[in-house]
Amino acid sequence: MNHPRLRPHLRAHLHRLALTCLASSALFAALPAHAVGRLTDVQVIDRDSGETLQVHRHQGEYWVAGRPGARYAVSVRNTTGARVMTVVSVDGVNVVSGETAAWNQTGYVLSPWQQYDINGWRKSSHEIAAFHFTAAPASYAERTGRPDHVGVVGVAVFREKPAPVLLPQPEPRPYSQHERRERLARSDAPATPPAPAPAGATAQDSAAAPQAQERMASAAPRLGTGHGERENAWVGHTSFERRSERPDDLIRIRYDSHENLVAMGIIPTRPVPPRPNPFPAPVPRGYVPDPS
Asked: How far is it, in rounded angstroms, from Cα 101 to Cα 47?
């Protein structure tokens, strides 16, 4: 499939094409309550209930509890005043290209402060297959022979390389009469013949170097992410040059069922006591009375 986003031309890692989010994105969205990230706020949303899934931190890992069968979205909000590129993976698979995920692949480009909900596996520039929580054997990763990383969402965030600043060129100084005579004398001298090419060197050999450089470059069944029904989801195309080959921020959120998170001790089983109200009375009553 010759799609400019899914199969960009082979260049260095910093020159991959990316997707830019259009009308379905929301600008200047409110700060989410259960977000993870430094340059972006990443959260997982149950699309069927509208609930933002609570993030549980356990032994340095972030976890959310998914409902089997529920559709969900990975919501990403750019918290900076510049464009960023987000390479997003689910279960170790790039959500745009379907490749086994790596940092140097294609992703979504977000404008300053932009939020975008990634609702599924991208099938084209106008369609996705919805994410939904399902038993791991029915997940897209396992169905395509990649079961080792089921149960994780990853977001690699890249800053954009600044555009070069072009300085004004100084005005050329006029030549003196002496300098003009010297230049005329040098132009009349016989040209030095070019050095002979090494034996066997051809024009094809000189082009081979750049081409070679391009080539280098628990209690219940676990949950995974299925390949659901098709939905409309439009995006555009843009280019993005990364400031660095390595991500400027790397986010990992693991997920499983509520039952499994309880069994693993990630979600506590003891009930949380009710939160007391420091001002329960509707109207104050003068000074402090004696107890009865």
From this structure: 24
Q: Model pTM?
A: 0.69
Residue 138 pLDDT: 97
Look at residue 12 in the predicted model and tell me its pLDDT: 40
Farthest-apart Cα atoms in the chain, separation? 117
> Domain of 129?
13-162+218-263
Quick check: is 271 in a domain? Answer: no
Closest CA to 132 of 48, 24, 34, 10: 48
Can you tell me the distance from the alpha carbon of 267 to that of 56, in angstroms, rounded to the nearest whole number? Answer: 7
**How far apart are alpha carbons 282 and 132 in whole angstroms?**
46
Residue owning tokens 């010297």: 182
Q: State the total domains in the chain.
A: 1
The two beta strands, 93-94 and 61-66, are: unpaired
In-domain check, residue 3: no
The more confidently predicted of residues 22 and 194 is 22
